[in-house]
Write the structure tokens for this entry.
Amino acid sequence: MLLPLHTIPHAMFPDTPEAAEAAFYAAFEARSLDAMMAVWAGDDSIACIHPLAAPLNGRAAVAAGWRSMFEAAGQFRVQVELAHEIREASQVIRIVREYLAIGQETEPRPPILATNVYRKEADGWHMVLHHASPLQVGGTLPVRTPPVVLH
Amino acid sequence: MLLPLHTIPHAMFPDTPEAAEAAFYAAFEARSLDAMMAVWAGDDSIACIHPLAAPLNGRAAVAAGWRSMFEAAGQFRVQVELAHEIREASQVIRIVREYLAIGQETEPRPPILATNVYRKEADGWHMVLHHASPLQVGGTLPVRTPPVVLH
């Protein structure tokens, strides 16, 4: 039996950047490549930067990056905290702190800082950029690190 | 004598994202806080993330970050290479690799990856976001690093 349109789960048509972001992290925790790629915009302008890694540009490269991540690791749990937001009519930038725990870890790792950019399209809001990078400040710096770069 | 309007240097009214980006890196190399803050949009939605550091939000915090950087270090030289671009009518995202040399260094440091976002405003294009992070892939990883984060 087909469901009437109004009963289709809201997340299928993310009508706010917040809904798109919730779908992004839900897909991440579920390690679902299909759900993940549904969050991203449909064109090849998209780009994804995992921490310390080179940028992945276009849908094929972005999907390959998530596939290898989902295959390599166990269960993820992630808590997300908004740090800053830049809102335009059709594009929203959200800077968030991600607190990630992997597998049986009971303590979250040091936070990751991510810039998430969402674009309003005909079928709702979609991610066009994810730039994630380590956030190591103050006491959380490990004893031996690469030389601190100034920029 | 006042210059006629059409002789005012082009860089004062950056009419492309590329011109705004050129002005950004010129201000960085010149260590000019005035020139740097003229590149940024005039409102407090702006955000700047230096490598491994917490986000600086709003003009006062962004300016304080650049001031302390310009005071702390010697001469910078930076080469910039475009890695990817996402163009909208009034907002452009440019992902670049920055090759930085500081002071008397003759070899550039390992590249920094930066997401630069520019917004079209009444007086031209201005930066609204700079998210810079270390790019360490393959052979450039130091022997001892923090545990590699997966996301």
Remarks:
- Helices of chain A lie at 17-30, 33-39, 59-72.
- Chain A touches chain B through 55 residues (CB under 8 Å).
- Chain A is about 25% helix and 35% strand.
